Amino acid sequence: MNFFHELISTFQDLVAQVPDFVQPLVVMLAGAIPAVEGDVAAVIGIVSGLNPIVAAIAGAMGNFVTVLFTVLLTSRVRTAVVNRTALVGATAGAAESSAFGSDQSAATDEATASVKPESKGRQKGRQRLNKWFVRFGVPGASLLGPLALPTQVTSAILVAGGSPRAWVLLWQAAAIALWTTVASVSAWLALTYVVGV
């Protein structure tokens, strides 16, 4: 018995102590974490001894639920910002001389000045996503986005940029299904033919 086989068997014995109906829920919760996502959650589920199909579905569902909430929240925020900008733009001429207008512009300038700069890694991820978006649109940015950023971040950027919610959700679902399937099949093949579990 090699090291990996022993490690995986120990992990599976540990997971076997958790009730069977709770195991997919744990994988689903892991899939909801942006850094883990559906693909890694499915691999964790498969390594823990869960049926590969159940692990893939649970991981993908957890990931998609958080993407759905992210898209809905970002869409509402974008609508509020666009409506607020339109309202401020329409009333700017009339309120320019009033104290309210100057307070509003001072608050806007203060909010703009207090924005923290992004980390270099996040900037690179955004630049890659932007390049893919310009070249391939929402489908390409969604399918290639997980290589640079978590799907939740990608979907928020796409919706905040004005892409339709339904279109982003459709392509994020396709991306989650694709990457979770690739990861699940790879993990199953590795466990079956390389490790021998």
From TrEMBL:
UniProt KW Transmembrane keyword: yes
Protein's name in the database: Small multidrug efflux protein
Transmembrane feature ranges: 21-47, 53-74, 132-149, 169-195
Keywords, ordered alphabetically: Membrane, Transmembrane, Transmembrane helix
Region (Disordered): 101-126
Lineage: superkingdom: Bacteria
